[in-house]
Specification:
The complex is a heterotrimer.
Chain A (H helix, E strand, L loop, with lengths): L9 H7 L1 H11 L2 H7 L2 H6 L2 E6 L2 H17 L2 E6 H7 L13 E5 L6 H12 L3 E6 L5 H5 L2 E4 L12 H20 L5 H35 L5 E5 L3 H17 L2 E5 L1 H6 L10 E6 L7 H13 L4 E5 L11 E4 L9 H4 L1 H15 L28
Parallel strand pairs in A: 1-2, 1-3, 3-4, 4-5, 6-7, 6-8, 8-9, 9-10
Chain B lengths: L1 E7 L5 E3 L1 H11 L3 E7 L5 E7 L3 H14 L12 H13 L2 E7 L2 E2 L5 E7 L5 E10 L1
Antiparallel strand pairs in B: 1-8, 2-7, 3-5, 3-8, 4-7, 5-6
Chain C lengths: L1 E7 L5 E3 L1 H11 L3 E7 L5 E7 L3 H14 L12 H13 L2 E7 L2 E2 L6 E7 L5 E8 L1
Antiparallel strand pairs in C: 1-8, 2-7, 3-5, 3-8, 4-7, 5-6
The chains are: A alpha/beta, B alpha+beta, C alpha+beta.
Chain lengths: 381, 133, 132
């Protein structure tokens, strides 16, 4: 078995640094940046918000939907990008000038589908706003507005920072829109800012203990290859994030769902003792009672289960691994940081298994960029 | 030193009180200081404007009416004139202060001090405080 | 003598500060003089209004709102409440000069109230009272 030091890797370092990064990020996101992105008139033209992105960006959108709705008072839909690009009726875009606000999230801004989303939204009259690390990217050029996110310099590979950065940027944007619309006061905007920093700082303190717990769990789970993640609404983002990291790092066979559908479908998976299961269950969630029933089901099936929550271990059935994380003053902030538990677990599992992330060096996998993220044809329908 | 004057206003009256204020300053003997004119009513105010053209005063009072019209649906249900007057008074303000230099109230060559009646006709009063040496 | 007071306002608030100012005047020991109240904010102001009917305070805020509506095309692009608040504050004014006579603040008791008028908020605010 490998030692902890042998299992240090870029993903692990990134996740461990997430709280520090998040604190620095909040300091660097000046209010001016959000004041300048949309004028007051543009903000009042918005009647509805659509957020779209792929992978981690989509998850960040899901994570911030409650924050967006609460702070802006606007109906907010988070759409899968293929749904937004090809299936959403074009009449939904630009019914009145500058409405809806379409937020397209992409760190690189270079993939075919995000360029397509920006072109489509702009063409039909929506207020397209690109959130990207590259304001000169092809996607950014197709958007009417661009908000630059800040992510630390990092190599190519499995990341965790872009999710935190995107969701933080969206939270500040929502607060700005809500302030202009009179939903939240200037005082509340300040309090949201300060609470977010305090929340990130509370994670700084618990990271070593969390690392101990995930290291110990990774050693117990090293032989598992099938995984299943469950979370509802904003917590679905955390569940999805966990699943993505297991697939990206060691190529797990993975599924992800919400509590209700898991009780309808995932529940039936065979050999439950060999399915590593992640459940995100927060006590402030309106579906917490259903999450507890789900946890009970996982326990009865003897599924190896990790519960990520702000609640105490004692509320969950015995035998489940419970990871109790710090609680934010505002519930809608918790999904910004709760992903670190699954991130740490993945970062320890793949070196323990001796697998390279993104199937590097795997000859069977080299299909010449088969997924065509760059090469896929752009179609505007 | 504190002076007090009374006056009987007409409706929407703009009454110049510059001479009365100056008289109280002169009487006080104060050469170098400050004069404060205070109106103890909440439907009247004190303001400074040109004293040359009485038509200009009509314009001003009419424009106050245009800006804060007499409506029947104010929350304060006294009379439309009274309800509007409270607002005009709060905006214009109940006091005015000016420097006293060489025993004279320092005003522009066409500036006068006025008691603005936003309701009326009523018996009104105002106070003039002279402060200094 | 200069005194500072702080307060927490609500949105479009009218906070009666007459009692505080009268106390400061009384405690200053000044028998015969003036009292200057100043509000060091540009989206709030000081005004004197009738304290007998709270509806009057709502009417004042409501009418100021009608005169200077919260628009989204102000050149100052902070928020509509902030931008209009700056204008309301400039019109109503941040400074009030009052008379001190026989050691007391001169005001028509139970008639005139001194109000801290909040044109944005809720916010922590302050004002200064100088008695001389």
């Amino acid at each position: 078995m490998k030692t902890r030091e042998e299992c240090v890797n870029p993903l692990w370092e990134q996740v461990m640094n997430t709280p520090d990064f998040a604190v620095r990020l909040n300091d660097s996101l000046s209010p001016d940046k959000f004041r300048d992105v949309l004028s007051m008139k543009e903000i009042y033209d918005i009647k509805r918000v659509i957020i779209t992105g792929c992978g981690d960006s989509y998850m960040a959108g899901i994570a911030m939907k409650p924050a967006f709705e609460k702070l802006t008072g606007l109906r907010t839909d988070v759409m899968r990008m293929i749904e937004f690009n090809r299936h959403l009726d074009s009449g939904e875009l630009g019914r009145t000038p500058g409405d809806p606000l379409v937020i397209i999230i992409s760190v690189s801004g270079g993939f075919a589908r995000v360029i397509e989303a920006a072109k489509r939204g702009t063409k039909y009259g929506a207020m397209t706003l690109g959130i990207t690390d590259r304001p000169d990217s092809p996607m950014a050029k197709e958007c009417r507005k661009v908000l630059k996110m800040d992510i630390p310099l990092m190599g190519e590979g499995v990341g965790a920072s872009s999710y935190v950065s995107t969701s933080t940027t969206m939270l500040h944007l929502a607060a700005r829109i809500g302030h202009v619309r009179g939903i939240v006061s200037g005082e509340q905007v300040k309090d949201i800012r300060n609470s977010l920093v305090d929340f990130c700082k509370s994670y700084q303190a618990i990271m070593p203990k969390l690392d101990d717990q995930m290291w110990e769990l990774a050693n117990r789970w090293v032989d598992l290859d099938r995984f299943d993640f469950v979370g509802d609404a904003a917590d679905f983002a955390t569940a999805f994030f966990g699943a993505a990291k297991m697939v990206e790092t060691f190529g797990a066979t993975c599924s992800w769902d919400d509590s209700e559908d898991w009780c309808h479908i995932g529940f039936f998976s065979r050999n439950p003792r060999t399915i590593g299961t992640g459940l995100v269950a927060n006590p402030y969630s309106p579906s917490f009672s259903r999450c507890l029933e789900t946890a009970k089901g996982m326990s009865l099936l003897h599924r190896p289960t990790l519960v990520v929550t702000t609640a105490d271990k004692s509320v969950f059935p015995e035998g489940l691994e419970v990871c109790t994380l710090p609680e934010a003053k505002y519930d809608f902030m918790n999904p910004i940081m709760q992903n670190v538990a699954f991130g740490l677990l993945a970062s320890r599992l793949y070196p323990l298994k001796g697998i390279e992330p993104f199937r590097a060096g795997d000859k069977d996998f080299d299909l010449g960029g088969y997924n065509g993220r760059d090469s896929s044809a752009v179609e505007i329908v | 030193m504190l002076g007090k004057r009374t006056l009987k206003t007409t409706q929407n009256d703009l009454r110049e009180i510059t001479k009365e204020v100056q008289d109280i300053v002169t009487e006080s003997g104060i050469k170098d200081g400050l004069v404060v004119v205070w109106c103890p009513h909440t439907t009247a105010g004190i303001l400074a404007t040109s004293f040359w053209d009485p038509k200009g005063h009509e314009d001003m009072m009419e424009d106050f009416d245009r800006i804060v019209p007499m409506r029947v649906n104010y929350k304060h249900q006294d009379t439309p004139s009274d309800a509007a007057a409270h607002i005009k008074s709060a905006v214009v303000g109940p006091s005015l202060s000016a420097p006293v230099e060489d025993g004279k109230v320092l005003l522009g060559h066409s500036t006068g001090i006025f008691f603005a009646e936003f309701d009326g006709p009523r018996d009104r009063q105002y106070f003039v405080k002279v402060y200094g040496k | 003598m200069l005194e500072k007071r702080t307060l927490r306002t609500k949105f479009y608030d009218m906070v009666n500060i007459t009692g505080e100012i009268a106390d400061i005047v009384k405690n200053s020991g000044v028998q015969d003089g003036i009292c200057i109240v100043t509000c060091p904010h540009t989206t709030a102001a000081l005004c004197v209004a009738c304290e007998q009917d709270p509806n009057i305070l709502e009417d004042i805020q409501g009418e100021l709102n009608r005169m200077i509506p919260t628009r989204n095309d102000f050149k100052h692009q902070e928020t509509p409440h902030d931008a209009s608040g700056h204008i309301k504050s400039a019109i109503v004014g941040p400074i009030l000069t009052l008379i001190v006579e026989n050691g007391e603040l001169m005001i028509a008791h139970n008639q005139q109230g001194i109000y801290f008028a909040e044109f944005d908020g809720p916010r922590p605010r302050e004002y200064y009272v100088k008695v001389m």
